[in-house]
Amino acid sequence: MDLGIRGREAFICGSSQGLGLACARALAAEGVNVTLNGRYVEKLCDVVQTLRYDFPDVQVEAIAADLTQPEGRARILGALPEVDILVTNNAGPAPGALDEWDEAALLAAMNANFIPAVQLIRAWLPAMQARRFGRIINITSAMVKSPHYMMGLSTSARTALTAMCKAISREVAANNVTINNLLPERIDTPRQEFMLQRLMAKEGIDRQTARRKNAMSIAAKRYGLPEEFGAACAFLASQQAAFISGQNLQLDGGSYDGLL
Fold first, then answer.
1. Per-residue model confidence (pLDDT) at position 220
2. Quick one: which of 19, 177, 29, 27 has its CA closest to 89?
3. Is 204 helix (H, G, I), strand (E, B) or coil?
4. Which is nearest to 28 in space by CA: 229, 225, 226, 234?
5. DSSP per position, 88-147
6. Which residues, in sequence order, are bridge partners of residue 179?
7. What pLDDT score does 252 carry?
8. What is the mean pLDDT of each run of 10 residues along the chain (260 residues)?
9. Four-point Cα dihedral 101, 37, 248, 246, nearest 10
10. Alpha-carbon gap, residue 168 to 129, rounded angstroms
11. What is the three-class DSSP state of 73?
12. Is residue 226 a contact partner of residue 19, using CB atoms and an 8 Å limit?
């Protein structure tokens, strides 16, 4: 299927690895020019070279900047005044408990998983509306709909972003601008390696046992593939997805227990 987005310009937050990189690869495969983002220049350069080799017909660039800092966002907006496709993404706070969630922790979570996305949307949305094409895709979490206690910080900040974007989506749908959210759980990325190490330390088990235990917690009895996640992102960015907006698409192997 031709997704109708060849030649479009995309910016993907936090895309030097993991889910962001999976989205960048899927968009590049559809002929979209992609600009990657991360904090570490050397790592970004390596990823850029790989994508340029794999997708020689598209432009692949990168902007090293910390999304959580106003100067980082200013650097991005100064280098890239307009985009057609925005994929927001950032690492979530570490797991924790209520006695750790002081005011500083709450503000840090919002500054990582809510404020950067909203500020980039504010900057790029008007031009999307004027051109009558825009796709905004937020990478959030399955726990937006199924909160877990230890992930309360991440869940709260991402839920705030979900609510904000739902409100905005109704105002821009008539301009062919869509805003949707991808809700991953147990996608096989470096984030899952971090969670494995926590489980191994907590339960005194080896990596293979921990990995099997995590996989068995998913209805599909396996980890999701980054390629599967990236494909969903590319579809939401497509011409064919123009009538889908304000939605939460769960990529969780069928694990969600709810009806809605």
1. 98
2. 19
3. coil
4. 234
5. E--PPPPP--GGG--HHHHHHHHHHHTHHHHHHHHHHHHHHHHHT-EEEEEE--GGGTS-
6. 136
7. 97
8. 97 97 98 98 98 98 97 98 98 92 97 98 98 98 94 96 98 98 95 87 93 95 97 98 98 94
9. 110
10. 12
11. helix
12. yes
Is the CB of residue 254 less than 8 Å from the CB of residue 220? yes
Under a CB-based contact definition with an 8 Å cutoff, are residues 173 and 213 in contact?
A: no
Question: How big is the CA angle at 250 (ends 186 and 134), to the nearest 5 degrees?
Answer: 120
Q: For residues 60 and 34, is the Cβ–Cβ distance under 8 A?
A: yes
Amino acid code (one letter) for 17: Q
E strand or H helix at 61, and its extent? strand 60-64
Question: What's the rounded Cα separation, in Å, for the pair 171 and 89?
Answer: 23
List the strands of the sheet with 134-139, edge to edge. Answer: 60-64, 33-38, 9-12, 85-88, 134-139, 177-184, 248-251
* CA–CA separation, 84 and 160 (whole Å): 24
Nearest to 159 by CA among 178, 138, 179, 177: 138
Cβ partners under 8 Å of residue 107, min gap 6: none
Instruction: Retrieve residue 9's tokens.
Output: 């310009």
pLDDT at residue number 98 = 96
**Would you state the pLDDT for residue 193?**
85
Q: Which of 125, 120, 133, 135 is nearest to 182 (CA)?
A: 135
Question: Is-above-0.90 flag for pTM?
Answer: yes
Residue 46 three-state SS: helix
